[in-house]
Write a structure and sequence with these properties.
This protein is mostly helical. It has helices at about 5-10, 15-20, 30-50, 50-70, 80-90, 95-100, 105-115, 120-130, 140-155, 155-165.
Length: about 180
């Protein structure tokens, strides 16, 4: 039996990964056939799902994405509050105006939040929790905002520089 080091010398990391994904596949044609069978199976299973189960799967996927994002140390400018809100609205198959009506928020306010022209209010965040039947808790939405704010506080030199003039005296040492 070959050792892991011997296998790593003979195969690329991609080939090693493919051997786990497509066990028994001998070549690219074989892998493609296995992938096609798998894809057909997934389509068949998916077509049998009810609309409610598809919605649940979509929302769970979004919730896990948000939870993963807020628990990592990495900041990604794409994943802002408005991005996740837009995804939520899209996955429940509503348009912005319709959704704004469901949570009693002005469509312009909703649009401004989605497009990062305005910060979401607490009332909006609580209404998102209630609208989702508490599946997306207010605390989860607040954590997205907290991550954005933490990044801004540590990286926006413009704010830091503008506030320096208001500090008349500072400690003489650092700890």
């Amino acid at each position: 039996m070959k050792s892991l080091k011997d296998i790593e010398k003979e195969l690329t990391p991609e080939e090693i990964a493919e051997s786990y994904v497509f066990p028994g596949a001998k070549d690219k044609k074989d892998r493609k056939e296995i992938l096609d069978v798998y894809r057909d199976y997934r389509k068949k299973i998916s077509s049998k799902q009810s609309a409610k189960n598809k919605l649940i799967a979509e929302l769970l996927q979004l919730k896990f994405l948000i939870e993963d994002y807020v628990t990592t140390d990495n900041y990604n400018a794409i994943y802002h509050f408005g991005y996740f809100l837009k995804e939520y609205i899209s996955r429940i198959e509503k348009n912005n105006k319709e959704f704004a009506g469901e949570i009693d928020v002005a469509p312009t306010e909703l649009s401004q939040v989605i497009n990062k022209h305005r910060r979401p209010t607490e009332k909006l965040i609580y209404r998102l929790e209630l609208h989702s039947n508490r599946n997306f808790p207010a605390l989860l939405w607040f954590k997205v905002l907290e991550k954005e704010r933490a990044y801004e506080l540590t990286h926006d030199k413009r704010i830091i520089d503008s506030e320096k003039k208001h500090v008349k005296q500072k400690l003489e040492f650092s700890i």
